[in-house]
Amino acid sequence: MFDTIPIYLLLCIGLCLLLYMVIHGKTSPKFPPGPKPLPLIGNLHLLGVKKPYLQLMELSKTYGSVFSVYIGTQKTVVLCGYDTVKDALINYADEFSDRPRIPINEVSSQGYGIVFAHGENWKVMRRFTLSNLRDFGMGKRSLEDKINEECDYLVETFKAYKGKPFENRVIMNAAVANIIVSLLMDRRFDYQDPTLIKLINSFNENIRISSSYLVTMYNMFPSIMKWLPGPHTAIFKNRLNLYTFIMETFTKHKDHLDVNDQRDLIDAFLVKQQEVW
């Protein structure tokens, strides 16, 4: 009796895989063509890990500039080539204006913000942000003045090394960050400010980890990967560092908020929040 248990187990697994292939092998008539997926992994065996865009370019030669692939069990439509992407963004702007639901980003941002949000929440935040950033100089001469001022700080910092070699990654990131920070919170950081360096390192680490194989696995099987240790867990730790800084910044702005003298985007957000409430 016990000898037959492995056979029944294999049969059950085989039937489950067959059922999966039958269900997921059916493609909507409106869904673009693409390579046949394998159970669980989809088309990952064709894409590779390091440079999947090269394999996607090769697949476009077979299936055309618009085709579909499976990233694990997730159906994905690929637009390949400049003309195709341009046509989609200009002539089908509404259909392509939303953001995908990526599990690692869903946990990190919880659906809020601009970059990783989606749906109506993203549309509202996008309209608010673009409108108010223009009020604070985006696309205007005043922002150009801030950029020139930051360039002066950058040049002086370079001169301080007197021609000796130095690591410029953090300095360059800090200079760019200061332009953004000037719009968000009306201030600038010294290039050696520990808070700024910590935030920049957290952002850079998250970008590096986001392209790793483990994050790909997390996005494919979030219900399993969330319980497993690995570098992908550092994304959530870095998120807490950022959120702590944001909460402290918002608290300080709220304590000194003047509705008639809005200094930056955070002030504008707090005023808008009061109007809604």
Automatic annotation (TrEMBL):
Isomerase keyword on record: no
InterPro entries (alphabetical): Cyt_P450 (IPR001128), Cyt_P450_E_grp-I (IPR002401), Cyt_P450_sf (IPR036396), Cytochrome_P450_fam2 (IPR050182)
GO molecular function, one term: iron ion binding
Keywords associated with the record: Endoplasmic reticulum, Heme, Iron, Membrane, Metal-binding, Microsome, Monooxygenase, Oxidoreductase, Transmembrane, Transmembrane helix
Bilayer topology term: Peripheral membrane protein
Subcellular location(s) of the protein: Endoplasmic reticulum membrane; Microsome membrane
Cellular component, GO annotation: endoplasmic reticulum membrane
Cofactor(s) annotated in UniProt: heme
SUPFAM superfamilies documented for this protein: Cytochrome P450
Gene3D superfamilies (UniProt xref): Cytochrome P450
Domain of life of the native organism: Eukaryota
Chain ranges passing through the membrane: 6-23
A UniProt-annotated Pfam family: p450
Family affiliation: Belongs to the cytochrome P450 family.
Protein name in UniProt: Uncharacterized protein
